[in-house]
Write a structure and sequence with these properties.
Blueprint lengths: L2 H8 L7 H19 L6 H18 L4 H35 L1 H10 L7 H16 L2 H19 L3 H18 L4 H10 L3 H27 L10 H13 L8 H11 L4 H19 L4 H10 L8 H7 L4 H23 L2 H12 L3 H19 L2 H18 L4 H13 L9 H10 L3 H4 L4 H16 L17
Length: about 475
Amino acid sequence: MNASTEHHFTKSPRPPSFFESLLPLIILAVLLGIGYGIFQYRIEILLLTAATVAGIVGYRLGYPYKDMENGVMDSIRKGLPAMSILIIVGALIGSWLAAGTIPMLVYYGLQIISPQYFLVTACIVCSIVSVLTGTSYGTAGTVGIAFIGIAQGFDIPLGMAAGAIVAGAYFGDKISPFSDTTNLAPIAAGSNLFDHIRHTLWTTTPAWLLGLIVYLIAGFQFDVTAVESERIETIMSTIAANYAFNILLLIPPAIVLYATIRKLPVIPGMLASTFVAIIIAIAFQAESLGNTIAITVFGYTSETDVDLVDTLLSRGGMQQMMNVTLIALCAFAFAGIAQRTGMLDVLLERLLRVARTTGSLLAATVSSCILTAFMTGSSYLSILLPGELFSPAYKQRGLAAKNLSRTTEDSGTVMVPLVPWSIAGVFMAGTLGVPTLEYVPWAVMCYSGWIVALIYGFTGFKIAPKIRDDETIPGS
């Protein structure tokens, strides 16, 4: 081997140009925008295809395969603790359903319905149910349908009703510890789950209250009298007939609440709650040990023979969370290569030339999340991709990762149901029987949260500084 050939194999990789750094992102945008947004191809393969393009660019830059593989592994390794929590949340939901904890909470939550203030009540009740169940789809497909029926009886415009329902359904999707997107946001940003939830409340609560004020004012024009909703009565009577209620069913959520308040490690608290819920399911709901264990893995299947109730309560299980985890792994593959080869550094350097202040950095994050939401129609990708892209910039500015995870929720998660071609938009429109563009103006919380986030960013209000390197530790 001559000297020139030996030098060719030992030379250091060169830095990527701006175009080389941008090319994989352009390919990713095209693949997701057309492949997923139009043809509904599987996200996982599209992400891996974009990762392959990034790998080819990295190889041309002089990076050996092993280096890029290590970049992927480092990216995945950072997300493993949070992905573990995501999987355990699946077991937690299944065990709470089997124990009757969630059914009991839903049952009593429905009793606060006040027909006199329909829009406000619809939003509040859907918010409560979505927080307890962690699912916007399940909330809209059960309680939401019941409220649409009531709205028709009251002659309330269905666009108003659907907007209040969607906003309430996504309130829980945004802050419930049982929601997949609530768990994904801290995974992507590198923050702690419960720190993320507490921090997100600072932007979510004003946006939610603004919606309630709008609903209250709008509701004054309607002559709403007390009526009985057959669907809600069906849900309540079916739940009461199929589950045994008592105060001990509140022990599982009390354990999680205690662990949260005391800032104890998340996983042990969730596991303890799951084990207690299994015991309660056996003692009070006549579940067998083998069946309850299977529920924590494969999810709970409600068998009341009432579709409304079965749709709401059939969910959970670690297996269900594996689908979300797979998408996260594929996104980390693309991000790991792009970061190891220096592509993200080049893009961030260009971005940071514009985003010179905290406010402009949050504005860039918001724009990225909204663009991803409209381009892909995926709440997962609108969290994962901007989260991975902006994480180093927040660290560089000395900002806590929970600022980033909060912003991805404010401008990613809740914007997706407002996109007519997204899965969420299609689901909500089809389930509630109201076109997406009719309910968009009334889903106030979904589009006002990112405005609140920008106000905080430019004023510095409730923008947390980074206090430790490992921000997955509670209290970061």
